[in-house]
Amino acid sequence: MAAVADQAQMRKGPWTEQEDVQLDFYVRLFGERRWDFIAKVSGLNRTGKSCRLRWLNYLHPGLKHGRMTSQEEQLILDLHATWGNRWSSIARRLPGRTDNEIKNYWRTHMRKKAQEKRNMRVSSTDASSISSSQSSLTEPMEIATSMFEEEDGGVMGPSMDQIWNELAVLDARFNHEGCEEEDFDQLMQIPPMGSLWNYSDTALETGGPGKGH
DNA sequence: AAGGATTACAACCGCAGAGGA
DNA sequence: TTCCTCTGCGGTTGTAATCCT
């Protein structure tokens, strides 16, 4: 009963600077676990879920802010072509970037690209040239945009045939580099999950991320 | 300069899986 | 074994900032 009342009073919406400071303090104190507990003891009128999201997507010390670099963009395109909308998996390959950030980036940028490409085709080609242009795609950007072709109004995913086709292309590329999926981490020179985000902050050295469990 | 359209990003929601009691 | 809580994920929405006419 009281819990229901509490839920009703929970704060929503944008975080204030004060809330950020408070959350930061308590996460450093208790670690990145037990978000409901942190939400309670911190006195923030937020749900644990909200606290976790704020921390992971904004306050985490390892996060990069600002625009994607061209390398990151390229990597996102490649990985999305391989994995589809598995944003968290993609994010693990991009240190300092969150799944949320990548998801947003994809939605805004790729949608735009797909639309531009579509407009170009409509104005310059007939139906038969579309299939031939698909088979000649060589750049990840082209692959991604072609896989993200839209129907009017809505975003449309690629067909399974398309997915497997493009996977074959990427596969061939990785094999050309002499690496398997398991070697991908090495290829990308990304540290393993646990050490993905290294805290420089000494306050966390005793605890650190992923310590819980 | 004003106002509408578009873009970029933050945050919420619902669901599913893992793990503990 | 079942239930409950916590965590993580992907989809979606809301809004501030920027661009364009």
UniProtKB/TrEMBL annotation:
Cellular compartment(s): Nucleus
Domain Myb-like: 7-59, 60-110
Domain of life assignment: Eukaryota
GO cellular component: nucleus
Pfam families: Myb_DNA-binding
Alphabetical list of PROSITE patterns matching this protein: HTH_MYB, MYB_LIKE
Comp. bias (Low complexity): 123-136
Keywords on record: DNA-binding, Nucleus, Repeat, Transcription, Transcription regulation
Protein role: Transcription factor.
Gene Ontology molecular function: DNA-binding transcription factor activity; sequence-specific DNA binding
Keyword match ATP-binding: no
InterPro entries with a match to the protein in the record: EOBI/EOBII-like_plant, Homeodomain-like_sf, Myb_dom, SANT/Myb
Region called Disordered, residue ranges: 116-139
Domain HTH myb-type: 11-59, 60-114
Organism: Vanilla planifolia (Vanilla)
Protein name stated in the entry: Uncharacterized protein
